[in-house]
Amino acid sequence: MPGKGRDVMRAIVQDVYGSADRLRLLEIEKPVIAANEVLVQVRAAGVDRGTCHLMRGEPYLMRILGLGFRGPKNQVPGLDVAGTVAAVGADVTRFQVGDEVFGIARGSFAEYAAAREDKLVGKPAGLSFEQAAVIAVSGLAALQGLHAGRIAAGQKVLIIGASGGVGTYAVQLAKAFGAKVSGVASTAKVDLVRSIGADEVIDYTREDFADGRQHYDLILDIGGNSRLSRLRRALTPKGTLVIAGGEGAKWTGVGRQIRALMLSPVVPQRLTMYISSTNKRQADLEALRQQIEAGHLTPIVGKKYPLSEVPEAIRHLEGGRAQGKLAITV
């Protein structure tokens, strides 16, 4: 139910870094929007690993870079959002009150959230709010990872972590770009990866993608912590390895990635990394929407939770049980 007063709302609030136990459902003031921002009445939000990193304040480099030393500067977590425009800033020209939108917000685990105009696009008519709410963060990460790998039609592509939020988008986008796609997942998630169009699914509990039987033009490593030597064994002689940033080392989150960058100049293969960004990505959000409207991309909502159960949703994600993306209904 909405907050009792016109200018208040229910929101998940966190004042210090830590586990999901630090999250509380409170009634707070609605956000005040800037001239270039939109106030979104949140209908659904998405749970992603970036939000988990911000919750815990890890890697610690994030704190030094200005996101808050002891606790997050923005005390309402959540980035992925879908909802209805409730108000627009003076400089906003692309949206009006009543428009249905999705994208990136500032604090989407709430009844209302502020979002920059250039971080929102119109919601495809055929999608539910829950589906739309799980697109932006993971879809952008998948798109950026494939672009970093210079994906091309006809390539053999391996997606490690194919059943997760980013992985399910990466598999579908790689197929849309004309690649032959193999996905790596656990036994319980093999059917999901196959259902979204992977040409081959490798159950890592039973098979080794680096056993020498196959070699890939591009490997996008989203999940796991395989050694560089093992990943290189699965590449073609001139293949490309792209490692997602943000996982691993507690201080920087990119220890293995930095080693890959240092090794790349002295080996024939291209070893690189990327850290997903949500800044200046309006064109990419539009590209994702076009892929969805063309039928090439389907958001996978693994499970839905009400706003009051955000802590449980985060525990579910951190426990490695999630398939696709988790959605928060508001």
Report on this structure.
- Helix 4 crosses helix 5.
- The strands form 3 sheets. Strands 3, 4, 5, 6, 7, 14 and 15 form a 7-stranded mixed beta sheet that branches. Strands 10-9-8-11-12-13 form a 6-stranded parallel beta sheet, with helices on both faces. Strands 1-2 form a two-stranded antiparallel sheet.
- The chain is built from 10 helices and 15 strands.
- Helices cover 26% and strands 28% of the residues.
- The protein is an alpha/beta fold and 330 residues long.
- Helix 6 links the parallel strand 9 and strand 10.
User: Percent of residues in helical segments?
Assistant: 25-40%
N- to C-terminal distance:
9 Å
Average pLDDT reading = 91
Shape: globular
**Beta-strand segment tally:** 15
Strand content: 25-35%
Unreliable spans are 1-5
User: If you compute it from the alpha carbons, what radius of gyration comes out, rounded to the nearest whole angstrom?
Assistant: 20 Å
Report the order of strands and helices: EEEHHEEEEHHEHEHEEHEHEHEHE
- What structural category arises from helix and sheet content? alpha/beta
Main sheet characteristics: 7 strands, mixed
Number of helices: 10
